[in-house]
Prior knowledge:
By secondary structure, the protein is α/β, with parallel strands linked by helices. 35% of the residues lie in helices and 16% in strands.
Amino acid sequence: MHTLRTPDAQFANLPDYPFAPHYASIPPQDGTSDELRVHYLDEGDPDAPTVLLLHGEPSWSYLYRHMIPLLVDAGLRTIAPDLVGFGRSDKPAARDDYTYARHVAWMTSFLRVLDPRDLTLVCQDWGGLIGLRLVAAEPERFARVVAANTFLPTGDTRASDAFFAWQRFSQETELFPVGAIVNAGCTTDLSASVVAAYDAPFPDEAMKAGARQFPMLVPTTPDDPESAANRVAWTVLEQFAKPFLCAFSDSDPITGGADRALRARIPGCADQPHTTIAGGGHFLQEDRGSELARAVSDFVLGS
């Protein structure tokens, strides 16, 4: 497996991103022979309650830059990894190197290397498709979950027209404009410097294999390669009684209404202060990061 690594110079002087980089080496997965380097942020008191912040497509840990200081000020430790293929993490070069199962395995290995316990998962977009699988695989590692604009699809129900439109665009566009895609998923208009920061991990199209492939890995048919694994994960989540909070925004055409399935099927959702965050698009961390951070800190410290 040929792997690419974004030059460090790409990450110099990014706006509102003063955090020191940390790296974990994870062992080869699924018959590959390559160890991968995963980048993550680790901010706050190491002995404080720990929040795991998982981003999605096509963002990276930069997405959480406004939330991290607020969570730390509230008395929490934050760990925010870059998924393999994103941010400062290693990027396998071939699209076939990326599968849903491998993404889960890579993040499972990452957690086992760091071995944090009593975690609160905060997951958005693909952060939930991966993160909820992590919870189902090792529920004892997690104390609670915050789901924001995400879901765990099995392909048994039809995805939204907005998702299929996004999927087509992601495969048909000649250039994959990462920063512009994030901007289009916000209700606010990002500055040129912030759009450039989302582009920073991807100085050329060769670096974007993971970002290109992600939309095709979402299970949209019952016989998708990962539909069965997600059904198994649901059987665990349907027994998950630890606190589970839904904090969705009100203006996301991709995941709008997905919180209903979570709230109906996961016991830990009962009697929780679920919230709909007004004015947020798909990337609500950009649009309403302070509101989401407040919901997370109140949930962690009050439960």
